[in-house]
Amino acid sequence: MNIDVKMLAGRLADRMRLVSFELTPVHAHCAWPVFKGIAEGTTPVFVKLTERDAAERSLAFLAAASGVCPFLPKPVMKEALEFEGLAAICTEWKEAVHVNAEDMTEGQLGAFAEGCRLLAKALSEYRGRIVPLSDEDSPARQYDELRCYSLRHPIAGRLIRPLLEIPERERSYGGRRLTAVHGDLQPRNYGFDGDRFAAVFDTDDITEGIACEDPAYAFTERVRRAELSAQSRRRLADMFCRMAEMSPWPKEDWIFALNRARLRIAARRLARHPDAAFVAFDIRRRDAPLRNFSDCVRRRFFLV
Fold first, then answer.
1. Could you give the domains of the chain?
2. What is the DSSP annotation of 28-81?
């Protein structure tokens, strides 16, 4: 996506009535363009381009929750700036270091658990517009997609049988109270300052779910990484158990959140190659560490 950075900086300066405003692109791997800005030569800010609805959701949530969660950035502009068919969000810059879940210190783990609790509280009290959980993103739909795939490719389908054997009560929202969730709380989207939980980013995709899905995804997103050793995965499981012990959420919700992550990862891969039998091998490879992770968590913390 080609963005005229100089023109965007000029538009922001005009809107904010500033003499000077500089922008530097950061995080080239992100799906949406993001920048670090310097207002008036001294004040650092964060600028992100995204869809209009997402920008309005993010600004509304940040305006309501920044006082409750000190790690959330405060909006610099109350409204998003229209730019080349997108909307630019401008918030304060939060200086933070991204730390993968398996690399957290004991102090960071405790701060992360408390930060997730505060974030979940702020999200539960948010009364603005959120993205309803679409039928396509529901656990039931994702499970059905995997089941239909196994019927189309019965031999390859055997490789994803563990996903199809997840009991319905452990993969269904049935009876659970849905609330607003961040939806993508992975290491790129949170950061620390020493042992202090210092920042949460990308609140423009707030959607429906259960509160512990966010911290559970932060760990399962790491477990699926092929470069992690067995020792790192065991450490992740140990840390996850300790974090769950600190949380106010019941074990049934944590089990659901882990299985929800497994389905999300498999369905995402299947969506790219809906009729390719070879994709079952990739799904099995990605699911195996998650399944082991889930089993380890059950044994060590949930005792089931």
1. 5-92 (3.30.200.20), 101-302 (3.90.1200.10)
2. TTSSS-EEEEEETTTEEEEEEEE-HHHHHHHHHHHHHHTTT-TTSPPBSSSSPE
